[in-house]
């Protein structure tokens, strides 16, 4: 079965760190860009970061630049989100999603995991 | 950042109704727009990409239209499983931004 499985969420104090993992199965993730999208409790979706197939291209929403780092290990078919200096406003369900495109330009997320919950609170 | 505005924020409809949801971007995003459905407690699901292309496996009751700044998601003959929240997202330039969502509720 083609799926993504996130892990690594939990409760952390403000200023703390967490590393989220996203394991792909049923397909070879090395062929795809990947991204992370988050959803605060009761709120809408917010794109967080993306990464290309070999990890040489990465981009982030401004609110996490300098604090979060996206990476991947293609040998393990996995993508990661290292989150440092966490803030209360980072509390959210974090989804990993596979990216596909039309002609390498019109990007869209065609496969989503079920998410992992990050709670930042003292 | 590109602003994405969805309307309405919620609507009430009945099974069998035709529903339209609008998404407006500023500035224009050509056809770099996709639509997602999110059922309660579940992850988003891709419905439409490239503004008008139906994702495989998605019922043909769903359709997307528009270009540049004005986009529409149409659901013909609403089914019970279609009561959910719908989001548009632009991927013309980062940060990729979502609309605030439209909740489709049962009348």
Number of strands of chain A: 11
The mean pLDDT of chain B is 97
Low-pLDDT stretches of chain B: none
| N- and C-termini, Cα separation of chain A | 39 Å
General form of chain B:
globular
Rg calculated over all Cα atoms of chain A: 14 Å
Number of helices of chain A: 0
Offer a concise description of the structure:
The complex is a heterodimer of chains A (122) and B (107). With 122 residues, chain A is an all-beta fold. Chain A is built from no helices and eleven strands.
Describe this structure in words.
The complex is a heterodimer of chains A (122) and B (107). Chain A is an all-beta fold and 122 residues long. Helix content of chain A is 0%, strand content 56%. Chain A is built from no helices and eleven strands. Chain A has strands spanning 3-7, 10-12, 18-25, 33-39, 45-51, 58-60, 68-73, 78-83, 92-102, 106-112, 116-120. In chain A, strands 2, 4, 5, 6, 9, 10 and 11 form a seven-stranded mixed beta sheet that branches. Chain A has a four-stranded antiparallel beta sheet with strand order 1-3-8-7, with no helix packed on it. The mean pLDDT of chain A is 97. The model of chain B has no long low-confidence stretch (mean pLDDT 97). Chain B is globular. Chain B is an all-beta fold and 107 residues long. In chain B, strand 9 and strand 10 form a beta hairpin. In chain B, the strands form two sheets. In chain B, strands 2, 4, 5, 6, 9, 10 and 11 form a seven-stranded mixed beta sheet that branches. Chain B has strands at 3-7, 10-13, 19-26, 33-38, 44-49, 53-54, 62-67, 70-75, 85-90, 97-98, 102-106. The chains are: A mainly beta (122), B mainly beta (107). The A-B interface holds A 35, 37, 44-47, 50, 59-62, 95, 97, 100, 102, 105-110, 112-115 and B 31-32, 34, 36, 38, 42-46, 49-50, 53, 55, 87, 89, 91, 94-101.
Keywords:
heterodimer, A: 122 residues, mainly beta, seven-stranded mixed sheet, four-stranded antiparallel sheet, 56% strand, B: 107 residues, 11 strands
